[in-house]
């Protein structure tokens, strides 16, 4: 992983690094290749805030896409 990509959402790396940062209440921010960012969160019934798709749903969508 290119360490320079950690703090710059607009920084594009040649190998399309994925950087995930922890947020409050079980949420995370994922930045893909510096080009796209989205929140990953758990539903409220699992003590999240439902601000984005849950991790399991993202795994299933990646397998289907």
The total count of helices amounts to 1
Order of SSEs, N→C?
A: EEEH
Give the total of beta strands. Answer: 3
Radius of gyration from the CA trace? 13 Å
List keywords for this structure.
disordered N terminus; three-stranded antiparallel sheet; 65 residues; 3 strands; alpha+beta; flat; 15% helix
Could you characterize the architecture of this molecule?
The two termini are 24 Å apart. 15% of the residues lie in helices and 23% in strands. With 65 residues, it is α+β, with helices and mostly antiparallel strands. 8% of the residues are buried. The chain has one domain (3-64). The chain contains 1 helix and 3 strands, in the order βββα.
Brief overview:
The chain has 65 residues and is an alpha+beta fold.
How do the helices and strands line up, and which of them pair or pack?
Layout: E1 18-22, E2 28-32, E3 36-40, H1 55-64
Antiparallel strand pairs: 1-2, 2-3
